[in-house]
Specification:
The complex is a heterotetramer of chains A (307), B (331), C (327) and D (498). Helix content of chain A is 42%, strand content 22%. By secondary structure, chain A is an alpha/beta fold. In chain A, the strands form four sheets. Chain A has a six-stranded parallel β-sheet with strand order 2-1-3-4-5-13, with helices on both faces. Chain A has a four-stranded parallel β-sheet with strand order 7-6-8-9, sandwiched between helices. In chain C, strands 1-2 form a two-stranded antiparallel ribbon. In chain C, α1 packs parallel to α12 and α4 packs antiparallel against α5. The radius of gyration of chain C is 20 Å and the shape is globular. Helices cover 34% and strands 24% of the residues of chain D. Chain D is α/β, with parallel strands linked by helices and 498 residues long. Chain D has two domains: 242 residues, P-loop containing nucleotide triphosphate hydrolases (Rossmann fold), CATH 3.40.50; 247 residues, P-loop containing nucleotide triphosphate hydrolases (Rossmann fold), CATH 3.40.50. The chains are: A alpha/beta (307), B mainly alpha (331), C mainly alpha (327), D alpha/beta (498). Chains in contact: A-B, A-C, B-C, B-D, C-D. The complex binds adenosine-5'-triphosphate (2 copies) and magnesium ion (2 copies). The site of one magnesium ion (MG) has 4 residues of chain D, from α1. One adenosine-5'-triphosphate binds next to β2, α1 and α15 of chain D.
């Protein structure tokens, strides 16, 4: 009997997760006796994910690997899944420790925070200014990982006195709202040099807004996004560089971890991730996959066709 | 045939006959879905699975009951999901003070009731169409939840609070499900067996004549809005308990699925007709369809195509049949 | 008495000006002509959709599927553009508008021929249309670099200092003013919504006009599909999610009666502008993002109460009058 | 006259609604230059025929000939293009649109080249037509600001805006003042001279004899007779209509007049009426007369608690009462049979017995739980007593004819055992048979000790039935007459403000 793993994403139809699914399928193929069920709700709600998880429980899958829309709201249903003997892994966006066995961060949160600040600093230098204002454009005010990253960024910022954080706004992962918020930032902060958007919808909209406002070269957008979605904006010059971890690897690793949990091939402190190596688990069962990778004009097109 | 447009959905047959046949029709479809599901997935006919699946729709179903009555009285409430959110936020704050489950529950019910009262007062005092009022309060109530909670989460609920949304009364019969059955009975009685229900129908059919018959139409509708708010508060208790936490995004988008349930149940969106039995069956129909499709891992958005198609199809079928029947004996 | 009706629109206009002035006190740049133009430009799509929606509401219907229609046509147009970049953009726009028209006609036929209430029909088609976006795109995005240069740049090209997007909305407004005042079909839409029975007696086919209204609303949504996708240079499943409620709110604030038969183009445009100013002002004056939703909700409620007060007839209590003419 | 001369003729026309055969093989001929009166009791099928002749309904069977040609009228448009135009019983117009637009809706005038609407021309034409019928109405006013009578004139103007060859008037005078009725007669005469074929439906015999040349009688959806007006008298027509003779039209019975039950002192309303004071005694029928728009309906609605902003004192049996809603009024013992039967009187989708039980659900079912049996029993008594014509009291009220619907409304109120019953135009659009029944019933009521207020625009009716009469003009009580002082001349002069 093959090992059946439910790969639950925040919502279907998001490029990042489609790429993660690719990695998951790759892992399944490599393992031979694993089957990945890729699924997720229509919109990024906890209730929708619970529905999906319910049907996975009913199908008696062996493991569930979930990128959560809500750290806490999924805990009861995932506890139930565990009671029914299902292994639970969260990846990308985590679930509170009671709700899962292992959490796989794409990278360490502090590393992501640091990376974002570093990118902002690079972007500031690209404008030719010594000092300048930066702003953060986030997704919804409730997204777990965004909030953690923003917090991490704020921890690092004091080391970069030339960066002056003036605002944090929320585009709710809606193109029009993110666009409007960006325009608002540009208007209300004339000395703004950098917009950091650690969200793939937001960064695209922000780049478009900067371009439409004719501020290319004066203001740069950076943050986290997919090469395929940002290639055009790197070309336009609105984005100098941005970072992302490899979503294919992330899906791959989450699948491998789930498989190994089901097979009992793990210890309290380490778990295999196939070709990626071995993840080290901390006391709360979280692991980090890899460092985020930086993309710019030199390499973005090579990756745009992949994810 | 006559071509008068303003009451298209009411074939001129006796009310009870028409409704009976509608429910029968729904029941048939539901049975068909049940059979198809059990053939399509080996996991379907498992009592525990069915019980788990019921959690996906029971809270919405509970709200659908008073909403059905409200729609029969020619009003509508689009703010229901936002009321659930605000009630849940209120419960979160009460829970934070260390209060026990009864007090938390009371807070949820109270805020729900208050929201319903606000909707009702706006509609009846200012005589504004409820669809318009509740489009506004929909943003308002959820907006207040955002103001209060921002990006934080409330999860200090006491242990025993989990019972409402996660507990079982007997074997696989969850508290939520049993509560739904009880409430369905209560609302069946209220709509079909009481003066209040009769007045609801009279108001839905002709509010002016109802008013001239000594019925306090405004108060009646106010009560219905309050009832909807109260039940939203109750749904908030169940949902919050099930999730074990509160965020302002809770129950996002539920208003449309609840109204879909009600309409699918044969309640005329223009008011005046519909039954609790119809809504009761429609709830299961929708629950079974989504669960069945979920078991074969159909993406949620494809399900929504199917639900949308089903909504139109189910409403259109009787109309089409009638047209077809009328065409045959051409003079 | 006529002045009373006009007053409501004047009132709304005054309100918008006051609002803009207040925002201007906080951020002076807000009142710069260039910024006001930008605000108008940003509201253009809302205006166009609201005008389509107005026609539908005038006939006592409602179109909840506009945003889904926009998403679907936008996705189709974007996919076509990325697959065949050589096809001229105007042809694509036409294709989008036609597709939108067809989607609107589907709504219209269901309402007209089967007599299903519009809210039910469009509740259904709204899920169906958006679901089809997912099926077509397989959940993938169409991104900026996959779109041709012309596709993205046309709406922002400036003619006489005004972007094409704004021009499009100006033209739509002008056509609508003409249509609702000077065209038989436009007037018949008012008649049909005001009193369906009377309309039928006078030989006006109410159902056919509902069909026409839905078709126009669909056509405009199709047009906006292109405008939206090119403005934000991205197409994905959730484009304009929930936007239908903004569109309806714009109509309602603009004094379009949800009971049908009442509403003007100018009111509707003002309603949309009102929301547009708020949407654009709140981020600028630095209102906490957590307050924005509550504020726009409160504004809708207040606007609607104000409308209801000015609409209230004197003396008699007039309850909703059922259409109960004997047959 | 032979059939070949008739302009519009119907043969064997049938039309059924579920459960009702509204028309059964009827025939009708309309001749150019002549007025044909269509006579029949409520529910005889007159309005249904009108709608069949104007393309609103499609007949189930039968043939229609126009100028000898066989035609079919699939849409109202088809009828209009032949020059068939009707003023329907219920004025169906557009409240929000201007008078001009109400006149031209559906056949707007356009500029030849651009296809744009020609508003100046339409306003001018509307002005012209309104002037012709001596209706001083500004064509640019929205219809909602007009009175009922003015609306009716707009409907007439609309009918005249077509190149009409057949003009159908379904009870056109029900809402018109004397002056307007005279105007209408003039219009009819002009149309006759222009060679139009006219069909005139009315329950008022004086009118029929005044303007009709021919008559056709229907009974229960069937054709009964036709002929020339010269050859019949009123009694014969009545016999044809109801199938029996009706002896007395106003069966006024003197009842013992007792204590005052209702005392109204200085009742006033900011916009509708002022300074209304009167007493109503047990066993009395108090008539309210006035032209349409005199404010009687508003006053009655105020007494019934429908209107807001009303001030003044109302006493029931020496007890001051505050009436803010119909519920208050019903509790105080005042009930109101409204003028607008279908909009205000009945719930069309509910069965007869539920309509009758509606105002006192809480009395029948004190514990709040419905008892169909009790409700049905209550309804049965009153429906029988009022002789509602229906197969069963479970029949939907919407399936009844106007007269029978009116009986349901009256039954509904009697069941509440009121002290004062207000009847607003109780016999408007009701045939002579049901009318007599209603009148007889009023007498029964006062004999049982009720007090009745009757609002009517039919002078003979008010004079025939009332013990006392109050005449209103422009929202004021202008005079009061005792039964022995009744004089048509003085009443009319008071009503017209003379
Ligand atoms: N749409 C309908 N559906 C069902 N029955 C109807 C409908 N319209 C009319 N009827 C029935 O057909 C019969 C004839 O009605 P109609 O209105 O033609 O009578 P009428 O002669 O005009 O009466 P009145 O003098 O009261 O106006 C009545 O029994 C009425 O109840
Ligand atoms: N301008 C108007 N707009 C709407 N309805 C009107 C208007 N004028 C009159 N009406 C209607 O006509 C009815 C009669 O009005 P009113 O009370 O002024 O006169 P009345 O003396 O009762 O006349 P009647 O009873 O003969 O119609 C009212 O019930 C009202 O519904
Ligand atoms: Mg009639
Ligand atoms: Mg009156």
């Amino acid at each position: 009997d093959s090992v059946r793993i439910g790969l639950v994403v925040k919502a279907l139809g998001i490029g990042f997760f489609e790429a993660a699914n690719e990695g998951a399928q790759e892992a399944a193929k490599e393992l031979g006796d694993a089957e990945v069920i890729y699924t997720g709700p229509t919109s990024t709600t906890a209730e929708g994910q619970i529905e999906v998880i319910n049907s996975l429980i009913a199908q008696k899958v062996d493991a569930i690997a979930v990128s959560a829309n809500d750290t806490d709201a999924l805990v009861p249903i995932l506890k139930k899944a565990q009671q029914r003997g299902i292994k639970v892994v969260s990846w990308d966006s985590g679930v509170a420790p009671e709700g899962r066995q292992v959490h796989l961060n794409p990278s360490s949160n502090s590393l992501i925070g640091e990376m974002n600040v570093k990118l902002a600093d690079e972007a500031l230098q690209a404008t030719g200014s010594e000092k300048g204002d930066i702003a953060i454009l986030s997704a919804t005010p409730t997204s777990t990982n965004q909030n953690i990253w923003i917090e991490e960024m704020k921890k690092v910022l004091p080391q970069y006195p030339q960066l002056n954080l003036v605002a944090t706004v929320y585009g709710d992962d809606l193109a029009d709202k993110s666009y409007r918020e960006t325009v608002g930032l540009l208007k209300s902060h004339p000395n703004l040099k950098v917009i950091v958007a650690p969200t793939s919808v937001g960064i695209v909209a922000a780049a478009q807004a900067v371009q439409d406002q004719g501020r290319i070269g004066e203001v740069f957008v950076t943050g986290l996004g997919l090469p395929s979605e940002l290639a055009g904006h790197v070309d336009s010059g609105a984005v100098k560089s941005f970072a992302i971890w490899n979503p294919i690897d992330l899906g791959y690793a989450a699948t491998m971890i789930s498989y190994n949990l089901v097979k009992g091939e793990s210890s309290d402190s380490a778990i295999g991730m196939g070709r990626i190596g071995t993840a080290t688990l901390d006391a709360e069962g979280s692991a980090a996959m890899a460092e985020p990778f930086v993309y710019n004009a030199s390499n973005v097109h090579a990756f745009a066709d992949i994810f | 045939m006559e071509k008068i447009m303003h009451k298209p959905l009411l074939p001129r047959v006796s009310l009870s006959y028409r409704l009976l046949s509608w429910e029968f029709f729904l029941l048939l479809i539901t049975a068909a879905v049940f059979v198809i599901n059990s053939l399509a997935s080996p996991y379907f006919l498992d009592p525990w699975n069915l019980s788990d699946a019921s959690f996906n729709f029971v809270e919405k179903a509970i709200v659908a009951l008073p909403v059905a009555m409200l729609i029969i009285s020619r009003e509508i409430d689009l703010s229901i999901a936002s009321i659930i959110a605000l009630a849940s936020v209120a419960m979160g704050f009460v829970a934070q003070t260390g209060a026990g489950s009864p007090l938390i529950m009371l807070a949820g019910l109270g805020v729900g009731l208050l929201c319903g009262l606000i909707n009702g007062l706006l509609v009846t005092r200012f005589q504004i169409p409820s669809i318009v009022v509740t489009i506004g309060t929909m943003s308002l109530f959820r907006g207040i939840s955002y103001i209060l909670l921002g990006d934080t989460v409330m999860k200090d609920y006491p242990q025993d609070f989990a019972y409402f949304g996660q507990g079982y009364v007997y074997a696989m019969f969850s508290f939520e499900f049993v509560l739904f059955l009880v409430l369905a009975l209560v609302f069946y009685g209220l709509l079909h067996k009481t003066n209040f229900g009769r007045r609801t129908y009279a108001i839905g059919n002709n509010p002016t004549a109802a008013f001239y018959s000594g019925i306090n139409v405004a108060r009646h509708r106010l009560i219905l809005f309050v009832l909807v708010g109260l039940v939203c508060g109750l749904a908030a208790v169940l949902l919050t308990s099930r999730l074990g936490s509160t965020r302002p995004t809770i129950a996002l988008g539920w208003e449309l699925s609840i109204i879909t349930m009600v309409v699918l149940g044969g309640v005329n969106i223009m008011g005046g007709s519909g039954t609790i039995a119809g809504v009761f069956i429609a709830v299961f129909l929708m629950g079974l369809v989504t669960f069945g499709l979920g078991l074969i891992n159909v993406p949620g958005i494809v399900m929504s195509i199917i639900i949308g198609g089903m909504l139109i199809g189910v409403i259109a079928t009787p109309v089409l049949l009638k047209k077809f029947r009328n065409r045959k004996p051409a003079p | 008495m006529k002045t009373l009706l006009q007053n409501r629109e004047v009132l709304l206009a005054v309100l918008i000006v006051v609002l803009a002035l207040m925002v201007g006190l906080v951020t002076h740049d807000f009142l710069l002509p260039s910024n006001l133009l930008a605000v108008y430009n940003d509201t253009s799509i809302l205006i166009i959709l609201a005008l389509g929606q107005m026609l539908v509401i005038l006939t006592r219907c409602i179109d909840l599927s506009v945003a889904a229609n926009l998403a679907l046509t936008g996705m189709v147009v974007a996919m076509l553009n990325s697959a065949y970049p050589e096809v001229a953009v105007p042809l694509l726009v036409l294709a989008g508008a036609l597709l939108g028209l067809i989607l609107g006609m589907i709504n219209g036929v269901l309402v007209w021929k089967l007599g299903i209430p519009a809210i039910v029909v469009t509740l259904g088609t709204m899920s169906i249309y958006r679901g089809i976006v997912f099926l077509l795109s397989d959940g993938a995005w169409v991104n900026a670099h996959e779109m041709s240069g012309a596709f993205v740049s046309i709406p922002r090209t400036e003619l006489l200092g005004i972007p094409v997007l704004a021009w499009v909305s100006v033209i739509v407004i002008a056509v609508m003013v003409h249509f609702t005042r000077q065209r038989r079909l436009g007037r018949e839409i008012y008649a049909a919504g005001n009193n369906p029975t009377a309309a039928f007696y006078t030989g006006i086919q109410v159902g056919r006009l509902q069909f026409v209204a839905f078709s126009i609303s669909g056509l405009l949504a199709g047009l906006c599909g292109y405008l939206w996708v090119s403005r934000y240079a991205v197409a994905y499943v959730d484009v304009a999610a929930g936007f239908e409620l903004q569109v309806i709110a714009a109509c309602v604030i603009g004094g379009v009666s949800i009971m049908g038969g009442i509403g003007t183009v100018q009111g509707c445009v003002l309603g949309a502008l009102f929301l547009g100013v708020i949407n654009n002002a709140l981020p600028v004056i630095g209102v906490s993002p957590f307050w924005q939703m509550a504020i726009s909700g409160a504004v809708i409620v207040i606007a609607v109460i104000a409308n209801a007060k000015s609409e209230r007839k004197t003396g008699r209590i007039i309850l909703k009058k059922a259409a109960l003419q004997s047959h | 006259m032979s059939e070949s001369h008739s302009l519009f003729s119907l043969r064997g026309v049938s039309k059924s609604f579920p459960g009702v055969k509204a028309l059964d093989q009827v025939r009708l001929d309309l001749y150019p230059g002549q007025v044909t009166a269509l006579i029949g009791e409520n529910g005889a099928g007159k309005s249904t025929l009108v709608k069949t002749m104007t393309g609103i309904y499609q007949p189930d069977a039968g043939e229609l000939r126009f100028g000898g040609e066989l035609i079919s009228l699939d849409t109202p448009e088809a009828a209009r293009s032949l020059g068939i135009t009707a003023i329907h019983q219920e004025t169906v117009l557009f409240d929000e649109l201007s008078v001009t637009e109400n006149i031209f809706a559906g056949h707007y005038l356009t500029r030849a080249r651009s296809g744009r609407l020609d508003w100046p021309l339409m306003h001018a034409r509307a002005q012209q037509i309104l002037q012709d019928i001596e209706a001083p109405i500004d064509p640019k006013t929205p219809l909602k600001f007009l009175s009922i009578g003015q609306r009716h004139m707009v409907a007439i103007a609309r009918a005249l805006s077509f190149e009409a060859r057949v003009v159908i008037l379904d009870e056109p005078t029900a809402a018109l003042s004397h002056h307007e009725i005279e105007e209408l007669y003039g219009i009819v005469r002009r149309l006759k001279q222009a060679g139009c074929a006219i069909m005139f439906i009315s329950h008022k015999f004086d009118e029929i004899f005044a303007i009709a040349d021919r008559y056709t009688v229907f009974r229960d959806g069937c054709y009964v007779a036709d002929g020339k007006m010269e050859e019949v008298d009123e009694a014969q027509l009545v016999t044809l209509m109801v199938g029996r003779t009706v002896e007395q039209v106003y069966p006024k019975v003197e009842a013992a007049i007792g204590e005052p039950v209702l005392q109204v002192r200085n009742l006033r309303h900011p916009t509708e009426f002022d300074a209304i004071s009167f007493d109503l005694h047990q066993g009395e029928i108090l008539g309210f007369y006035g032209l349409v728009g005199a404010g009687r309906t508003e006053l009655m609605q105020a007494l019934f608690g429908v209107s807001s902003g009303v001030q003044g004192e109302v006493e029931i049996g020496q007890q001051a009462v505050t009436i803010r809603s119909p519920a208050d009024a019903i509790k105080a013992g005042i009930v109101y049979v409204p003028e607008e039967r279908q909009a205000q009187g009945v719930v069309l989708e509910l069965p007869i017995y539920q309509n009758i039980g509606l105002p006192q659900l809480s009395t029948i079912n004190a514990n709040g739980v419905l008892s169909d049996k009790a409700e049905y029993a209550l309804a049965d008594g009153y429906a029988r007593r009022l002789q509602v014509k229906a197969p069963d009291w479970r029949e939907k009220v919407g399936n009844l004819s106007g007269g029978n619907q009116q009986k349901v409304v009256i039954g509904k109120w009697l069941a509440t055992k009121p002290k004062v019953i207000i009847l607003d135009e109780p016999t408007k659009g009701i045939d002579i048979g049901s009318k007599a029944a209603v009148h007889a019933f009023m007498c029964e009521l006062v004999q049982e000790g009720l007090a009745v207020i009757m609002v009517s625009s039919e002078l003979p009716e008010v004079m025939g039935m009332s013990d006392r009469m109050i005449v209103m003009h422009e929202g004021l009580m202008v005079s009061e007459f005792k039964r022995d002082e009744f004089s048509a001349e003085r009443i009319v002069s008071a009503a017209t403000g003379g």
